[in-house]
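Risk register update: the risk of archive-format incompatibility is retired. Evidence:
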Amino acid sequence: MKNQFSGKKSKGNPIKLVWLITLLSFSVGVFMVYFIWSTLTDIRTERENLFELKQNFISTQTTLESGLAKQKSELTDLLEAKLNINNQIEDLRLINLIRDYRRAVSDPDLFPAFQELERNINSLLIIKNKLTWWAGAYQRTVPRIPEARKEAESILERISETVDRAEGQQRLNRAAKINEIRQNISQGPKQIDITVLDELMTPNDFSIIRRDITDLVQLSERLHAISDADNLADLKDNKIRTLLGRVRLNTQLSEGERSTEKSELNSLLDEYETAMFGQGYSIDDDHQTIILGYDGVYGLILDQLKMEKEKSALQDEADSIYYRIEAALEEVRGRTNTITQQEVIKVEKALGQSWRTMVIIWIVTSLIYAMLAYEIIMAARQQIKAIEDSNVELGAMADELRKSEERLHRLSSDLFAVQEKERKRISFELHDELGQSMAALKLQVGSIARRLGSVKQEELKSVCEEMRNNINQIIENVRRLARELFLMILVYRQQLNTL
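Archived output:
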């Protein structure tokens, strides 16, 4: 029965299960702490990488847009002929920034966009160099136009003054001749020189020249208002050339004529043509054109018109490049935003996966805990049942033990009675038999003592032999009693063992 109880106890030991669930709880706790710490560390690392990626994208985009805005501002200044110091380091930095941006994104799908962006940046820098050269030439050319114009207008003013002075002198001469003729007529009829009359009837050349000079001044003014090179060439070759030829014809000296004013006008016309068409100019009457020389108002205005046309072409090209750059940047920005969003989704997925893993671990651990708790409950129930069974068994054993105690009490009483009886018997035997033998022996010894010295030795020997026999008999009786007492002790011990 005791072995059956031990078997039931070892079948489901709750202490072992408690230790197992404690160990499992500790292991799961340590694992969960490590897993949560590792997950949070990974999430923090991912978020730091995401933040760094965003910062890198934003910083690169901002720097790139700032560089492009600076380039655009410099191009605007160049289009206004404002020269800036060309910083090639900044230009190279812009190219390197595109390459760094491409390495930061590292998306093969965006390589064509970055190549297009880099190509457009290079084209923009080429346009910038062209505009720099254009702004330098514009600054060298346009500021000289007012000075050249002022010089040409000054020459025209001098021509007008010369014409006015010559025309006034010619009128004075004619008035003097008319006055002389009148005086001659008043003094009496005289014959008038026909040549004098022809001279007086001849139109005033300087009036015609003054009218042509006025037209030349107007044409010079129109020269600065024309914005088309073809119209400018038409004005030069068809109008100004014709007008200058007519003025030259009117200022031409006739045979034998001496006129300081006409000579001065021819000299001033040479200066005007040089100021207008440049040093080394020539007039090709066969082809009805004026071949320009170096400098000159017309050449400067023509260069200005060409530069304005070139400026318009460069500006259109720059606008087109900026449009393509903006399109490429918009594509890159959209893709980088997509990459950033993908990274955010990845981080969120990692976080969600971590939470799902923790929930799964919690569920599995809960199931294991539930199973172990069930095992513990079942083992406890078995233990309780075993205890109840053992209580029944213990009750039966207690009853049996009580009965045994009663039997033991009876046996003890019987043993005590037997012991008393046997003690009485032994004491009776010791008192009767052994006492009598010892008393007889004592009497014999006393008798021998009294007879010592008066009795013969042979008699003493017989008496001593008798005493020796008595003593042996006494010893035998003692041994017998001892044996009987020893058997009684053995029986007593067997009874005790039985109890």
